[in-house]
Amino acid sequence: MHPDSFDPTGNDPPPEQRPNDGSRRTFIKQASGILGLAVAPPFVSQAERLAAYTSKVEGATEMKLKVNGTLRTLRLEPRVTLLDALRENMGLTGSKKGCDQGQCGACTVLVDGRRVNSCLTLAITTQGKDITTIEGLAKGEELHPMQAAFLKHDGFQCGYCTPGQICSAVACVQEGHTKTDAEIREWMSGNLCRCGAYPNIVAAIKEVAGKGGSKS
After folding, report:
1. Distances (CA, A) of 80 to 23, 89, 185
2. Do 42 and 91 touch, CB atoms closer than 8 A?
3. How far is it, in rounded angstroms, from Cα 66 to Cα 49?
4. Cβ atoms 97, 107 nearer than 8 A
5. Which of 61, 104, 122, 171 sees the fewest Cβ atoms within 10 Å?
6. Distance between CA atoms of 136 and 166, rounded to whole angstroms?
7. DSSP result, the chain
8. Count of alpha carbons within 13 angstroms of residue 47, beta-carbon side
9. From the CB of residue 7, how many other CB atoms can be counted at a distance below 10 Å?
């Protein structure tokens, strides 16, 4: 029987017993086998990775967040943002939900001293880090120098963006981006104020920077 012919009786010998005759049919089968061996492991590996990833993100999980010096244990879905965890699960409503897209900066908090948009940050990724919100800046009845400066210079109007502005301003001073008004405006440009209190905010930041700043 010609190697490319089809045996209607179904009595073709097992593949391993067929000669390597160099025919097109044999070549295709051999090539398919080699290709299968080459391709299968990555697919299997990818499937395993996807399965493992899915199993990790499903359901609520326990997480520990250190907020304003206090370690809190929460049980949250991994998809919960830091902002929602702060506001909805810890009652820390100082951080505001403005655009919820990381554009207005009303949700700004400090994570390990660096400002982040908490609406774009997953709470689970902040485990093991120091999270500071506007509620954690003051020491008892003593306001943080930046809070006091905002009051002195009337750096707020409606006040909605103020918590994010102050957190960002604290980091701005610590980062040393306060040499000129233009530099302050540039490094505070991620925080929007619909009331237009920008000159007063810059004045407050300059005063704190001029006094050497203060750590959060």
Report:
1. 60, 10, 31
2. no
3. 30
4. yes
5. 61
6. 12
7. --TTS--TTS-PPPGGGS-----HHHHHHHHHHHHHHHHHHHHHHHHHHHHHHHHHHSS-EEEEEEETTEEEEEEE-TT-BHHHIIIIIS--TTS--SSSSSSS-TTEEEETTEEEEGGGSBGGGGTTSEEE-GGGTSBTTBPPHHHHHHHHTT--SS-SSHHHHHHHHHHHHHHT--SSHHHHHHHTTTS--TT--HHHHHHHHHHHHHTT----
8. 5
9. 9
The residue with tokens 């040393």 is: 176
147: tokens are 């809070």
What are the angstrom distances between the C-alpha of 181 and each of 105, 153, 203? Answer: 19, 15, 9
In a 10 Å sphere around its CB, with 0-12 CB exposed, 13-18 middle and 19+ buried, how is residue 191 labelled?
Answer: buried
Report the C-alpha gap between 12 and 16 in whole angstroms: 11
Spell out the per-residue pLDDT of the chain, length 216, in tens: 444 444 444 444 444 444 444 444 544 444 444 444 344 444 445 455 545 555 555 689 999 999 999 999 999 999 999 999 999 999 999 999 999 999 999 999 999 999 999 999 999 999 999 999 999 999 999 999 999 999 999 999 899 999 999 999 999 999 999 999 999 999 999 999 999 999 999 999 999 999 886 554
